[in-house]
Specification:
The complex is a heterodimer of chains A (about 350) and B (about 325). Chain A is of the alpha/beta class and about 350 residues long. Chain A has 2 domains: about 1-195, Rossmann fold (3-Layer(aba) Sandwich); about 210-335, 3-Layer(aba) Sandwich (Rossmann fold), CATH 3.40.50.920. Chain A is built from 12 helices and 14 strands. In chain A, the strands form 3 sheets. In chain A, strands 3-2-4-5-7-6-12 form a 7-stranded mixed beta sheet, with helices on both faces. Chain A has a 5-stranded mixed beta sheet with strand order 9-11-10-13-14, with helices on both faces. Chain A has a two-stranded antiparallel ribbon with strand order 1-8. With about 325 residues, chain B is an alpha/beta fold. Chain B has a single domain, classed as Rossmann fold (3-Layer(aba) Sandwich). Chain B has helices at about 5-10, 15-40, 55-60, 80-85, 90-95, 130-145, 160-170, 190-195, 220-235, 265-275, 275-285, 290-315; strands spanning about 70, 150-155, 175-185, 185, 190, 210-215, 240-245. The two termini of chain B are about 35 Å apart. The chains are: A alpha/beta (about 350), B alpha/beta (about 325). At the A-B interface, helix 3 and helix 11 of A face strand 4, strand 5 and helix 8 of B. The complex binds thiamine diphosphate (TPP) and magnesium ion (MG). Thiamine diphosphate sits at the interface of chains B and A. Chain A: Keywords: Oxidoreductase. Chain A: This is Alpha-ketoacid dehydrogenase subunit beta.
């Protein structure tokens, strides 16, 4: 029996279940408790973060949901430190853009411990953070920065594309013993999807084949999965059957599923909402070019925004974000390609 | 611009100065009140953070500044922009995402900037501004312009490492830099009573070896005087100052915020403490300005805001080509 809940509620449910199961799991972030912990003269109100993702946890888990001052370096670093000392902290870095003020604690500290300390450290920290364009939030609140984390050995990076993936991948992230960056698309919080009630973990490094097809492989990440699905419908109406592969984690990356698909279809289009240079989309296309060159029947296409910051104006932002039409055009380019 | 404002500080504000200050505060207020109404219609994209209630801070500080000086602002930046002389019509068009906007529709409410006016930008990153003004202050010092730089930041931002590092840097480099902590009681839903470990943000000044002062943020004259003193000292080579301005924001953190985390302190503030009401009462009482003069300013300001909204709505949107321009100067 299908149970439809939102991406936001799926994340909340994953946190609730893991906090119930394991008392070492704690949650921290700005406005997670808000009015409630601040001793404010206002009503008791725990915001659950600025978009209400952790709403309800504060009352349920006394002492385990911490508010933080706006001191990302300090609290993200504290989450990393606490992870080395037996807790499983889930820190909320409100917008991924704010990694700018705390990146050292993530990439020089958390990411390096295991290797640098000769395999002796265990740092099971999760950093939840929202990314992506579409809310007219302009250049400092709309970026898609998962490639920067993916670049760093020692970090695992998750980009859930639906409520189902969000819940299962977050449960895995919390249980995982390595540092995990969990990237939530801010325009997806109200997206509804079928989500089972109990706990389930989706393993990292296992892509999901969202749609079967033999004519072209479309690898899409995060919110771009739904854009690719829309494109696939239009392509099907024109006799082109697209296979859509959602890697679900960019690190580790399930290259096997991608390569297997391209070996069969001979065509690859990657849809990635991040800036085009040094991106996950370019990384995937390079891997395929290296390992499945002989199978390719046309040039790999990568659909991305232009190499610009995210514009504010709604007109410009709509042009900026890859659309289903852009994906259709890219597929046609590779499908029509003649040597 | 001339040095008129500086001269005025030393002598107190004359009638012209008072009129300018009142017009500035009223412009900020009406700009924000109108945005509050317009936002509710759904015409304005993105996040909008209103400065209503806090006008005396931007105005009290910026009436001490001139063309040599720079300021850095926050996500709640409209008031600072207006006080530093950014064109109101361009700002309104920017907030509507239009091609005629201050930033050609690419920045929006959170990023309005006009470097030609010494306005380094509203800022989407909490604590983004304080380090930047160390740089403009350093440039002014090296170039000997006599310029002073001011960072406005919130109580929430006072806990950001960048803010604390910037204050220390300004002190060790003896920069002409002023740090204005605008304590409106909350960072989003989080109370500053909780988030600021010291009793006052200004108490932290001692840790950086600079003077720290606390000012009633509803009192234009108090802010003007405290800022005047600090700015004069900075201009004379006396280094940075931390000024904590205490008040209440009249609206939510952003438009749409239900504000369940705070009791209604706004009705009292609007009624009893409001900076515009107090300014009016004082200058009428001293006979420096008449009610009629002030009313005339109110009417002019309303007219300006009306025109800026009408023009912003009618203005053209950016074109597809604009998406790709201005990433670099050369590439
Ligand atoms: C580095 C960073 N962290 C968090 C945020 C999200 N955020 C935006 S405004 C805000 C509250 C700021 O409070 P305060 O500094 O007191 O300014 P106020 O809004 O009260 O003017 C927060 C947490 C941000 N924009 N940047
Ligand atoms: Mg505040």
């Amino acid at each position: 029996m299908a149970r439809m809940i939102s991406y936001r509620d799926a994340i909340n449910e994953a946190l609730t279940l893991e906090m119930e199961r394991d008392e070492t799991v704690i949650v921290m972030g700005e406005d997670n408790a808000g009015g409630a912990s601040a001793g404010s003269p206002g009503e008791e109100d725990a915001w659950g973060g600025v978009l209400g993702v952790t709403k309800g946890l504060y009352g349920k888990f006394p002492g385990r949901v911490l508010d933080t001052p706006i001191s990302e370096s300090a609290f993200v670093g504290a989450a990393v430190g606490a992870a080395t000392a037996g807790l499983r902290p889930v820190a909320e870095l409100m917008f991924i853009d704010f990694m700018g003020v705390c990146f050292d604690q993530i990439f020089n500290q958390a990411a390096k411990f295991r290797y640098m300390f000769g395999g002796k450290a265990v740092t099971p920290v999760v950093i939840r953070t929202m990314y992506g364009a579409g809310l007219r939030a302009a250049a400092q609140h709309s970026q898609v920065l998962y490639p920067l984390f993916t670049h760093i050995p020692g970090l695992k990076v998750v980009v859930p594309s639906s409520p189902y993936e969000a819940k299962g991948l977050l449960i895995q992230a919390i249980r995982d013993n390595d540092p995990v960056i969990f990237c939530e698309h801010k325009a997806m919080y109200d997206v509804q999807g079928d989500v089972p009630e109990g706990a389930y973990a989706i393993p990292f490094g296992e892509a999901n084949v969202v749609r079967d097809g033999d004519d072209v492989t479309i690898v899409a990440l995060g919110r771009m999965v739904s854009v690719a699905e829309e494109a696939a419908k239009e392509l099907a109406a024109n006799g082109i059957e697209a296979e859509i592969v959602d890697p679900r984690t960019t690190s580790p990356l399930d290259t096997e599923t991608i390569l297997e698909s391209v070996e069969r279809t001979g065509r690859l289009v990657v849809v990635d909402e991040s800036s085009p240079r040094c991106s996950v989309g370019r990384d995937i296309s390079a891997i395929v070019a290296e390992q499945s060159f002989g199978a390719l029947r046309g040039p790999i296409q990568v659909v991305t925004p232009p190499h610009t910051p995210v514009p504010f104006s709604d007109v410009l932002e709509d042009l900026y974000v890859p659309s289903a039409q852009d994906v259709v055009n890219a597929v046609k380019t590779v499908a029509d390609w003649k040597r | 611009m001339t040095d008129r404002a500086t001269v005025r500080t030393e002598q107190g504000l004359d009638a012209d100065g008072l009129r300018d200050a009142y017009r500035m505060m009223r412009t900020i207020r009406e700009f924000e009140e109108r945005l509050h109404t317009e936002f509710a219609t759904g015409d304005i994209p993105g996040f909008v953070h209103l400065y209503a209630g806090e006008e005396a801070s931007a105005t009290g500080v910026c009436t001490n500044l001139d063309g040599r000086d720079s300021i850095a602002s926050t996500h709640r930046g409209h008031g600072h922009c207006i006080a530093k002389g950014v064109e109101v019509k361009g700002m309104m068009a920017e907030i509507y995402g239009k091609a005629t906007g201050t930033c050609r529709g690419k920045g929006g409410s959170m990023h309005i900037a006009d470097l030609s006016k010494g306005m380094l930008g509203a800022n989407g990153i909490v604590g983004g501004g304080p380090p930047l003004i160390c740089g403009t202050a350093l440039a002014a010092k090296i170039q000997g312009t006599g310029g002073v730089s001011v960072a406005f930041f919130g109580d929430g931002a006072s806990n950001q490492g960048t803010t604390l590092e910037a204050m220390n840097l300004a002190a060790v480099w003896n920069l002409p830099a002023i740090f204005v902590a605008e304590n409106n009681g909350y960072a989003e839903s989080t109370s500053s009573n909780w988030s600021v470990a010291a009793d006052n943000i200004a108490d932290r000044a001692a840790g950086f070896g600079m003077p720290g002062v606390i000012v009633d943020g509803f009192d234009f004259f108090a802010v003007h005087e405290a800022a005047g003193e600090a700015i004069a000292r900075a201009r004379a080579g006396g280094g940075p100052t931390l000024i904590e301005v205490k008040f209440t924001r009249y609206y939510g953190h952003f438009e749409g915020d239900q504000q369940t985390y705070r009791a209604d302190e706004v009705a009292h503030a609007r009624e009893e403490l409001d900076c515009l009401k107090r300014f009016r009462a004082r200058v009428i009482e001293t006979g420096e300005l008449t009610a009629a003069e002030l009313d005339a300013i109110d009417a002019e300001v309303l007219q300006l805001i009306e025109e800026s909204v009408t023009e912003a709505k009618a203005a053209p949107v950016p074109t597809a080509d604009d998406l790709l321009t201005d990433v670099y100067i050369t590439y």
